[in-house]
Amino acid sequence: MGQMETKTQWTGKGLGFAAESRGLKFVMDGKPADGSDQGPSPKEVLLASICACSGMDVVSILQKMRLDLQSCDVDAQTETTEGHPAIFKLVRVQYLIKGSNIKPEQAIKAVTLSMTKYCGVTAMVCPTSPVQFEIFLNTEKIHDGKADFTEAMKESHKS
């Protein structure tokens, strides 16, 4: 499986940390009360990572189906628990898919595969924070679901 490496360094300002992965740089920080607002917080980056990771799956699957995908926006909201560690209570994700020849069952299949088999970021978050999703196709809501990697994890841990 793939190796990953990220290096971070305190920026010297607020709670800011500059991160570098594969030569790509970004800054994370705390909100203005504690940090200096140089970038999103680590938890905001994690929430965005759920959207991007799953969105990449959905786009890839729909493109492999040779569909006319015009756009795929993935939005998410959550609240954190009280106390420490403060974790996501419940993550709510919305898939806003547009395409002229995409059938509802195709969009549902793509998102469901991501949320039950392929999205590694969501799979890592799910054991502590439930992830629910809604799918909209050409602005019409077509499905509600919940991420569940139980079967995929059983398969990936077989020797």
Describe this structure in words.
There is one protein chain. This protein is α+β, with helices and mostly antiparallel strands and 159 residues long. The protein has 2 domains: 1-40; 42-156, 2-Layer Sandwich (GMP Synthetase, Chain A, domain 3). It is built from 4 helices and 7 strands; from the N terminus they run βββαββααββα. The chain has helices at residues 42-64, 104-118, 120-125, 150-156, and strands spanning 7-10, 17-21, 24-28, 69-77, 91-99, 131-137, 140-146. The strands form 2 sheets. It has a 4-stranded mixed sheet with strand order 4-5-6-7, with helices on one face. A hairpin with a 2-residue loop joins strand 2 (17-21) and strand 3 (24-28). Helix 1 crosses helix 2. The model has no long low-confidence stretch (mean pLDDT 95).
How would you sum up this structure in a few lines?
This protein is α+β, with helices and mostly antiparallel strands and 159 residues long. It folds into 2 domains: 1-40; 42-156, 2-Layer Sandwich (GMP Synthetase, Chain A, domain 3).
